[in-house]
Write a structure and sequence with these properties.
Blueprint (H helix, E strand, L loop, with lengths): L1 H10 L4 H19 L3 H20 L9 H15 L5 H15 L10 H14 L11 H12 L9 H16 L3 H5 L6 E4 L2 E5 L13 E4 L9 H13 L10 E6 L2 E8 L2 H15 L11 H13 L4 H8 L4 H7 L4 H9 L5
Antiparallel strand pairs: 1-2, 2-3, 4-5
Helix pairs in contact: 3-5, 4-5, 4-6, 7-11, 8-10, 8-12, 13-14
Amino acid sequence: MIVECNQIVKSGLQSTETKKWEQLLKIVDSNVNASVAQGTKGKYKYWWCRFEKFCKEFNRQCLPFSEITVAAFLSHFAENIRGIGGVDLARSSLRHFHLLHFPEKALPTEGEMVKSVIKGIKRRFMIPVKKKRALSNKEFAKLLCTVVGGQGLEKLKLVDLRFLAQVSLMYCTFSRYEESASLKVSFIEEDGNDLAVNFNKSEQYQFGECRTSMVVGQTFGGQNPVAIIREFMKRLKMTSGEGEWLFPALKRKGKMILKLNAPASYDSLSNQFKRHGFKTGFDFPIKDYGTHSFRRGGVTTAVNNGCSEHVVQKQMRVASTATVNRYATLGRKTLAMANKCLSLK
């Protein structure tokens, strides 16, 4: 689109129809850009800068680039790190920028050579993915009790209360860090003793409950996730600062704590989890757990306790039960049910 617009301007054709077409192409460009999440744009920019350095080093044309250049770039990167980390994202980045500048040309990133190179890279360097352990409901309860200690929620530091509120929401709604970080205060609705969480996007394609998940008023080791989230929102409302993020970044200024107009970072949540998790003493070393343990833990516990996969799918806001099956780790008692079905009637 960009190239075509420039060609039209250079040719001197400035008829009413041409101007309208030029404006329409700019709208198309805006829509293509809007199709990529803000966080992904930053990653795309990072890979594009690496590609530019590669082209400069090997004297290759950056735009428009050829299929062999893409294949060589991906091969060079994978060989240097002896792995596949970032290969798919790098390819997506190149595809995005080529599409923006040369929309009517065939995408070099989709050629057979590139597909073969990626397949070869994965066969040579791929190692089994080691997933983080699912956090059991007992471990989740221990974590809440450890952070609260013998004091009430109202006496907790705001940063610790934010941590408890965020992980409680993630565990109960089966959500990822990115989903929880995108929430704003207005996305939470009171529903009697429970809370309805309206996420701003979903992997489901139907309307209705596709973006809504529930946090039910129940206790884990004496601690109620709904009460934790409500107390945090109450304290947050009294905190000075800008923005409407549900879990904002916090900054100390003298004796005051200010909320910033940005969500709390992944590193902040991860470091707090490691610190509090180490004190809690889980069933396995803390290095075996991560922030994704809350999502996996919630799904695993629900499935093993007999919740319908369809209901879990809705609570996860995903498009199929295949995702539920991938996340849920069945316990021995659940697996034994299959064996019990072998008995003679």
